[in-house]
Amino acid sequence: DTVLRSADTHPDGYPTVEAVKYMGDLIKQRTNGRYSVEVYHSAQLGEEKDTIEQTQTGVIDLNRASMGPFNGIVPETAVPSLPYMFRSVEQMRHVMDGPIGDDILKAFEAHDLVGLAFYDSGARSFYNTKKDITSIADLKGMKFRVIQSDVFVDMVNALGANATPMAYGEVYSALETGVIDGAENNWPSFESAKHYEVAKHYTTDQHQIVPEVLVMSKASWDKLTPEDQAIVRQAAKDSVVKMRELWDAQEKKSRDLVEKAGVKVSEIDKQPLIDAMKPVYDKYLSTPELKDLAARIQATK
Amino acid sequence: MELWILFGVFTLLMFAGTPIAFCLGAASFGTVLYLGLPPLVVFQQLKSGMSAFSLMAIPFFIFAGDLMVRGGIAQRIVSFAGSLVGHVRGGLGQVNIIAATLFGGISGSAVAEAAAVGGLMIPQMKARGYGADYAVNVTSMAALIALLLPPSQNMIIYSIAGGGKISIADLFTAGILPGLLFAASLMVTAYFVARSRGYPVEQFPGFARVGQLAVIAVPGLLLIGIIFGGVRSGIFTATESSCIAILYALLVTVFVYRSMAWGDFVHATKGAVRTTSMVLLIIGTAASFSWLMAYLKVPVLLIAGMNAISTDPLVVLLLLNVLMLLLGTFMDMGPMIIICTPIFLPLVTHYGVDPVHFGVITILNLGIGLNTPPVGTVQFVACAVGKITVWEAMRSIWPFYGASLVVLGLVTYIPAISLWLPSVFK
Amino acid sequence: MATGSVKSETQPMARVSAVLSRICDGALYLAGIGMVAMTALVAYQVFSRFVLNSSPSWTETSAIMLMNWFIFLGAAVGVRENYHMGFDVLLYVLPKGSKGALRMLSDLIALGFGFGMVWYGCKLVGLTWHTIIPALELPGGFDYLPLVAGGVLICLFSAERIAQRWSGLDIDKDINLEDVPEMPAVQEA
Ligand code: NA
Ligand code: NA
User: Fold this and answer.
1) B225: confidence class by pLDDT, cuts 50, 70, 90
2) Nearest ligand, measured from the Cα of B325
3) Torsions phi, psi for B268 (to 5 deg)
4) How far does the centroid of ligand 2 lie from the alpha carbon of residue B374, in Å?
5) What is the predicted pLDDT for the residue at C130?
6) CA-to-CA distance for B41 and A60, rounded, in angstroms?
7) Residue C184, domain member (yes or no)
8) pLDDT at C180
9) Which residue in A54, A243, A249, B141 has the most C-beta neighbors within 10 A?
10) What average pLDDT does the segment B28-37 reach?
């Protein structure tokens, strides 16, 4: 009859939220009701940096967070976060489901966390209020809002555009008023933040295809019997399938909605963009271990 | 039981006179200890609750307000307003309101406004035979105009608390008509009270003098256009506009009016640090308190309770207004916005209320709470300037409460008052 | 301000108070410098984006860090100068003896909360010390240092008030409207 509390910054009904609820149902079933999961969605318990610290110290039990906030804690997570590291969503899923994914999950243990599973966050691409972008030359001089992260700043600058780090909450107004020309995100966020109302040009450059992580507090994990630990781990794995189903449906729904609202979607030749990332990789793959991990990812079909 | 500890400790300490920040902090700390959770979460939320970039609007607008007072921008606006409406019955009351309206267009904080306009007007009013209670009440109510007219730090806080998806530029625009309506209702009320008390009129100084005072006030008033234009056209964000207000105030007072000495600057800085840290410490501990409310599922309970009463949007808005007025008597505005918005906004949008419209309702409603004891920051400031107690002010504030409630009703049930102007700017 | 006049029989306490008074002044000055520096940083951010057409990634994070410092320092100064806003109405009607007891309770609460800020602040520093603040390349623990510093000062200042009241100094004014916030002088334009 223990309730495992889980944090998520996404709203109720979002694929990650629903997947964790699904996992909770499985756990409840398989432990005969001894354990259940309660999801605190919509960042009720704080932003990801906060909830990660809460998970590490056992304030809450489970946490679904994006990879970015872990980069400063678990160095291995920085590699899949690098721009253009994965060629496609399929390749990303293949890599993270395999031994490379398991290695990264294990790396969380040294930081009071137990890595349970990787979820999808789709592919992030650029959108803007000005024009269709179909080549790297079109990006030149445009102001894109990025999250407060050096990798994103360096990526955007390496592409010849101007990175403007800005709080998420200011983006809509900033697009509307022209403080920035564009921003970047995946389809569902582009839709839910209503940025498509003001930014009518979307370019599928898929610069970041990064998985999200479901972690458990080491303190909560250690309270489970080995049998229950196995149940939790398996339920988490099972929820990934559910998550991807929901994600793909959500992505299609969002894309259809914004296209219907008049957003023009452009394709772009990705190779020149990937080539422009050389200095970025040199900067962030700072140790032989990280270089090796990147090479293994890229070598996976 | 957890909820009893959380709210019980808060209420008991509050009545014991413990500073609000520590009431919120101690109640959260105690509840977390009772729950057996690691208490560090209280202090994590304390720190992260005051770490949003948008919250910088608070220190910036308070600092800018202090500089405008010390540097003479406020005085010149008051003189100009005096030449315009001083000759009406109870003229200094009208001057107070017009000055507050003009100053409200450059000031983002009601506290700064009460200190600025009240500091100049209340002593003059008392000297001319106005009752101190009248002077204080007109000042404290007129200061609320600054909340509605852009710029407004509280609208920025509302936008963050609402998840950051509400356009601040729209909120700023939406506040203009309600702000002017509120100003008009206060002028009418002030006029009738002044007439019944037989207050004097001032001499009309002649159009030449009005023009001269207008020219003198222009450099300060230009900030209205700079801030509103700057935010709408995208040169800077709303939060950054509060920083621009400081730079502009410095520029005008140092180079145009040449009235800002180094000592004034140091004084203004210290004053702003004191006020800001007091307000933001409350916002920080309110974040810990909110975290516990979320953890204990208070919003879910509240929505369930509300649904049990009614699902009619008109009734829901009425109930929320009453609830916010009640809560607003006990709590300061910033923390209230941070605590209430995440709970109420999903509820009203569920019933089809526009988030921008609800923002204006929230700001006006909780603004009235700044003038209601036991916790009424603006009223405290005005009373302090007028050197009377809150109880003395309360004796004759009722006509002004009446006027604000009428405006609140109009703003609540006629969405166009808020939403028409933003739709024009689209 | 709030420390009142010092009686001759409390000489050691007067010396301690003099030291704390200087610490308090220092904290207020540091906080003021922090606020001015924050203003300059944000102004530079606007200038840089609008005029230089490039946005530095470190300005926002460092401006927030400065804000944390000056809030916690200023909040501690507020404990010594007794300007934190509370609901004083009940104190107004109570007899003097119970009023003193409630004031004592408030200071004990401040002391306890200040202690929590230090103790759990240190734990948070420890927890995040090996992480990295992305835009600044600093250990994550730096985020929580203002919390600890403010906590230390709040403990010192509230302990001082408790000791002063204990030794019979009159440090509690009635609801004193005269020094709620700093008021501007009245000038004719
Ligand atoms: Na205003
Ligand atoms: Na109130």
Assistant:
1) confident
2) 2
3) -60, -40
4) 6
5) 87
6) 10
7) no
8) 38
9) B141
10) 95
List CB contacts (< 8 A) between B76 and chain C. Answer: 189
DSSP, collapsed to helix, strand or coil, labels residue A294 as helix
> Could you report the per-residue pLDDT of A53-81, keeping only the tens digit for each?
999 999 999 999 998 889 889 989 989 98
Residue span of the structural domain in which B3 resides = 1-425
HSE toward the beta carbon, residue B89, CA cutoff 13 A: 12
Res B237: pLDDT = 80
Prediction ipTM score: 0.84
Q: State which residue of chain A sits closest to C132, comparing Cα positions.
A: A72
Q: Do C87 and B275 touch (CB under 8 A)?
A: no
Polymer length of chain C: 189
Q: What angle do CA B296, B38, B24 make, to 5 degrees?
A: 55
Nearest residue to C42 (alpha-carbon basis) of B274, B71, B247, A182: B247
Higher pLDDT, C105 or B53: C105
| Residue B196 burial (C-beta neighbours within 10 Å; 0-12, 13-18, 19+) | exposed
Q: What is the mean pLDDT of chain B?
A: 88
* Range name among A86-95, A213-222, B162-171, C122-131 with the lowest pLDDT average: B162-171
Whether residue B186 is predicted with pLDDT greater than 90 in this model: the reply is yes
Tell me if C87 is assigned to some domain. Answer: yes
Computed over every residue of chain C, the mean pLDDT equals 82
Number of domains observed in the structure of chain C? 1
Q: Is the CB of residue B249 less than 8 Å from the CB of residue B223? A: yes
Mean pLDDT computed over B128-146: 93
Return the DSSP state at A225: -
Q: Which domain holds residue C149?
A: 2-173
In this complex, which of B18, B39, B274 lies closest to C109 when CB atoms are compared? B18
The shortest CB-CB distance from B54 to any of A42, A45, A167 is to A167
Highest mean pLDDT among A22-36, A278-292, B56-70, C174-188: A22-36
CA of C84 to the centre of ligand 2 (A): 16
Pull the structure tokens for residue A120. Answer: 């999808």
Q: Which of B243, B274, B389 has its CB closest to that of C42?
A: B243
Contacts of A144 (CB under 8 A, 6+ apart): A126, A128, A156, A161, A162, A163, A164, A180, A181, A182, A183, A184
Cis peptide before C12 (omega within 30 of 0): no
- Inter-chain contact B273–C32, Cβ cutoff 8 Å? yes
Please give the tally of structural domains in chain B.
Answer: 1
Q: What is the 3-state secondary structure (H, E, C) of B257-311?
A: CCCCCHHHHHHHHHHHHHHHHHHHHHHHHHHHHHHHHHHCCHHHHHHHHHHHHCC
- The answer to whether residue C188 sits within a structural domain is no
**Of the partner residues C124, C127, C131, the one whose CB lies closest to the CB of residue A72:** C131
> Quick check: A200 and A129 in contact, CB under 8 A?
yes
Closest CA to B407 of B109, B147, B105: B147
Average pLDDT over residues B31-60: 91
The pLDDT-based confidence of C185 (bands split at 50, 70, 90) is very low
With 0-12 / 13-18 / 19 or more C-beta atoms within 10 angstroms meaning exposed / middle / buried, residue A227 is exposed
Spatial separation of the C-alpha atoms in residues A65 and A170, rounded to whole Å? 22
- B288 — contact with chain A (CB < 8 Å)? no
**pLDDT > 80? residue B396:** yes
Q: Is the model's pLDDT at C188 over the cut of 70?
A: no
Q: Comparing B382 with B363, which gets the higher pLDDT?
A: B363
- Neighbouring chains of C at 3+ CB pairs within 8 Å? A, B
Contact B278/C123, CB-based, under 8 Å? no
Q: Is residue C120 part of a domain?
A: yes
Mapping DSSP to helix (H, G, I), strand (E, B) and coil, where does residue C67 land?
helix
Q: What is the C-alpha to C-alpha distance for residues A22 and A236, in angstroms, rounded to an integer? A: 9
Lowest mean pLDDT among A109-118, A259-268, B331-340: B331-340
What's the rounded Cα separation, in Å, for the pair C149 and C172?
Answer: 26
Q: Is residue B234 within 8 angstroms of chain A, CB to CB? A: yes
Question: By three-state DSSP, how is residue A92 classified?
Answer: helix
